[in-house]
Amino acid sequence: MTAQPIHQPAPPPSPGAAAQLRRRIAAHQRAAAWLPAFERDWNHALETSKQTYDLTPLHETIREWSGRLDTAPAVAAFLASGMDTFDGVALEDVLGGTCG
């Protein structure tokens, strides 16, 4: 029996993934808020990658923002359903008051 890794790393995004993602964000209804945030995150990841010679920050930024765009319709539907979103645990209780 051979040992197999439990976690397979995700394949790197395509070379044009950031441009495609930027177009998706620009077409989204929340583009006015999300596009500057994406640009800030992308520029930070780019600077980190330049300093470390590692593309991981760029790949992580693409995956994170792709996830936000992919889940945005479900989040919007949940909020539009009128369900109470205040029955959860306060983040301060989980983190011990270190957030903020």
Structure report:
Helices cover 63% and strands 0% of the residues. It has helices spanning 17-27, 31-52, 56-80, 91-95. The protein has four helices and no strands. It is mostly helical and 100 residues long. The mean pLDDT is 84. It has a domain at 17-81.
List strands and helices in order, with pairings.
Blueprint: H1 17-27, H2 31-52, H3 56-80, H4 91-95
Helical proportion, percent range: 55-70%
> Average pLDDT value?
84
N- and C-termini, Cα separation:
49 Å
* Tally of DSSP β-strands: 0
Low-confidence stretches: none
For the sheet with most strands, the description reads: none
SS-derived structural category: mainly alpha
Multimeric organization: single chain
Radius of gyration: 18 Å
Sheet-strand content, in percent, reads: under 5%
Helix/strand order:
HHHH
Count of helical stretches: 4
Shape: extended
Feature tags:
100 residues; mainly alpha
TL;DR?
With 100 residues, the chain is mostly helical. It has a domain of 65 residues.
